[in-house]
Amino acid sequence: MLIIFLVSACYQEQEKSVTSADGKARIPVKAEILKEQEYEVIIEGIGKIDSRQRATLIFESQGQLEKIYKKLGDKIRRGDVIAEINSSVYQSTYKLAEATYEKAKSDLQDARTLLDKNAISNEEFNLLSLAEISSKSNYIQTRERYKKCSLTAPFDGTIVEMNLNLGEYISPGQTLLPPIVLANMDYLIIDVSVSEEEITQIQTGQDVLIYVKSYINKPFYGKVTEVGLMSSQGTNSFKIQVSLINNDYELKLGMIANVWITVNQFDKALVIPRKYIMENSEGKYVYTISNAQSQMKHIKIKDLKGDLALVNGEIIAGDSLITQGYRKISIGTKVKVIN
After folding, report:
1. Kind and range of the H or E element at 331?
2. How far, in Å, CA of 268 to CA of 34, rounded?
3. Sign of the C-alpha dihedral, residues 306, 38, 216, 249?
4. Is the full-model pTM beyond 0.85?
5. Sign of the alpha-carbon dihedral angle for 103, 104, 106, 107
6. What 3-state class would DSSP assign to 135?
7. How many angstroms separate the CA atoms of 182 and 189, rounded?
8. Per-residue pLDDT, 2
9. d(CA 142, CA 125)
10. Does the pLDDT value for residue 17 go beyond 90?
11. 7 vs 323: CA distance, rounded Å
């Protein structure tokens, strides 16, 4: 991803001191010219791929599984029937309750007419009204139990898990495995934990590069869509959520994804290999060359990426950075760049 900024000034190996044209001994070094380059500050994380919309579907009525209309991997629409248990008993109960409710409504209507003519008492009318309410409640309950003999899709999605066998007895709450897991495979998410320091740099809308082990050297692209406002229970980490579109349906739920979140971009940055950076009581520094002498330049590391460091401080573009022999010199050492 990065283009290293260093342009070689010389590469010949020489270990001993050399004598310059003026007859003075100088330490041989190699130097490279600092150049500005583009740089991205990346926060890395890892998480499992999941669906933005996923649901476990179970039967709410018990009975023998009679029909299976769909199979694993099928894309289905909201309201599609996936499977049915034997509904004969539920259907007959529902039809009886429906007839009872219709009769109770008719009786109540007749009673209202009689009440208006003072042909029946208020007490008798109230009893018929209560019977109508009771029969309506029974009718609704039996209708819902009958409907729930069918397992239907609550939203558009793909069947990602199925544990159904024709003829088995379905008993709600007693199944070890979910009968159906339905998921929207178009819109996926990855939950990632980041540190307290990193969460301050992350915002919604930032670009995310995603790599999955199953697809070597093939990047996927997403965005940060949620940034946690509270640390995860028992930890100092924060949760963020990355969203991506699964255009070719290559990604599967549960795959491990490595995510690279771009939190900052620089058009003109100074980036150097970490091995050239030294440290003393005053902080980190590097050696550069000016007028054939070594100079100590103090720097600060702003970001690390592998063996490279984004730095700022006393160095600027155009400085000659000593890249070999820097451990043999001190401030003001006479040096000779070997070409």
Report:
1. none
2. 12
3. positive
4. no
5. positive
6. helix
7. 15
8. 41
9. 26
10. no
11. 11
Mean pLDDT of 304-318: 93
Per-residue pLDDT reduced to its tens digit, 193-243: 999 999 999 999 999 999 999 898 899 999 999 999 999 888 889 999 999
Q: How many CB atoms lie within 10 A of CB 16?
A: 7
Predicted confidence (pLDDT) at residue 122 exceeds the cutoff of 50? yes
Which candidate, 258, 171, 269, 252, places its Cα nearest to that of 222?
Answer: 258
Q: Are 196 and 202 in contact (CB under 8 A)?
A: no
Interatomic CA distance for residues 34 and 308, integer angstroms:
14
Q: Single out the residue of 324, 255, 293, 266 nearest to residue 31, CA to CA.
A: 324
- Which pair of structure tokens corresponds to residue 253? 């739920």
Average pLDDT, the chain: 90
pLDDT value of position 11:
39
- Number of neighbouring beta carbons within 10 Å of residue 281: 4
How many beta carbons lie within 10 A of that of residue 122, not counting itself? Answer: 8
Q: Tokens 């579109």, residue?
A: 245
Q: Which residue has the tokens 């590069």?
A: 209
Maximal CA-CA distance, the chain: 135
Tokens at 157, concatenated: 């999605």
Task: Report the b/e string of 99-117 with b at 16+ CB within 10 A.
Answer: ebbeebeeebeebeeebee
Domains annotated on the chain, with CATH: 7-39+266-337 (2.40.420.20), 44-53+183-265 (2.40.30.170), 56-182 (2.40.50.100)
Distance from C-alpha of 272 to C-alpha of 270, rounded to nearest angstrom: 7
d(CA 20, CA 26): 7
End-to-end, the C-alpha distance of the chain in Å comes to 30
Alpha-carbon span 324 to 337, nearest angstrom: 10
* 273 CB-near residues (< 8 Å, 6+ apart): 4, 6, 307, 308, 309, 323
- Nearest-angstrom CA–CA distance, 46 and 240: 11
User: Who's near 323: CB < 8 A, 6+ residues apart?
Assistant: 6, 29, 30, 31, 32, 273, 276
